[in-house]
Amino acid sequence: MTTTNRDTVGFVGLGIMGLPMAKNILKGGYPLVAWNRTPSKIDELETAGAQRGESPSDVASRAGIVITCVRASDDVEQVVLGQPGVPGIIDGIRPGSVVIDMSTISPAVTREIAGRLAERDVAFIDAPISGGEQGAISGTLSIMCGGSAEALDRVRPVLETMGKRITHCGDSGAGQTVKLCNQIAVVLNNLAMAEALVFCQRSGVDPAVMLEAIAFGAAGSWQISNLGPKVVQRDFSPGFKVGLQQKDLRLALEAADDLDLPLAGTSLVHQLFRAVEHRDGSDIGTQALVRALESLAGVEVKSDRTPEL
Ligand code: NAP
Questions:
Q1: Which of 15, 44, 75, 269 has the fewest CB within 10 Å, making it most exposed?
Q2: What is the CATH number of domain 9-172?
């Protein structure tokens, strides 16, 4: 099968990320058939022109390219491989099709799923994403891909409706490995910002002024520019939830365990987020990492000023 602008795309998982991504595929001119576990979440997409699928296997039987964007490794296994008595994508899909998983899951589980699909002559691309809800809405995600170059070439035009930077990282699982590298760098930048804010507050300097002063120098980061202003205004609403961040850190630490590799900084942040979850629950935004440091230090980072970043 060759991919043209007219191939039907299937989409499974219309959450914070999946729904705007599916909308962008429709906007890109592709016929779309979608399924979500909670059916009401399909309504908006149906109004925008998508067809309603009855199940993951039904979606797969009606599309040449099937995308999953669910939550964790076992969720992807459930929708792709099915469960006893419940068919999955693998049961409906036609040989020659491509499945793309855009959830963040284990590289090892990714390789297992790829092997099972290969037995049916179906290619599997791991294509986890970075860029948050805003990137999903604006179609500017970074997409980190693993799998065969040939299969990726076939689905690249569909990925281009959702993302700006599409990188082929290597064989199956390599996209997930790079996504975990992304998460390691993200949490350590978050910790760096939180520690600077707590130090600044205790020193008696306005933390909003500090953010303005350092955001454009060598310490600048996505976290400082996007999460820093939220912290000083005590806004802990989620862009990315602590519970999902912890899932990703567990994946990184498990993979490091298999490699007999110390990940000292990542382990520390994982423990600090555990303290945040204990106090504030798993649905708070990841900028709440600062709250763990605040309770150790006995300070609260706060400013009356909105930083100009
Ligand atoms: P979300 O809002 O919680 O949505 C999860 C989606 O997966 C929902 O549609 C949910 O269905 C579905 N789902 C979960 N388990 C399922 C199962 N066992 N069977 C069928 N459907 C299932 O999560 P999200 O924020 O969109 O994140 C999706 C993925 O992208 C995750 O792997 C996450 O780590 C990754 N990611 C998220 C962000 C972000 O900023 N949010 C950024 C980068 C990557 P229901 O509607 O029925 O619950």
A1: 44
A2: 3.40.50.720
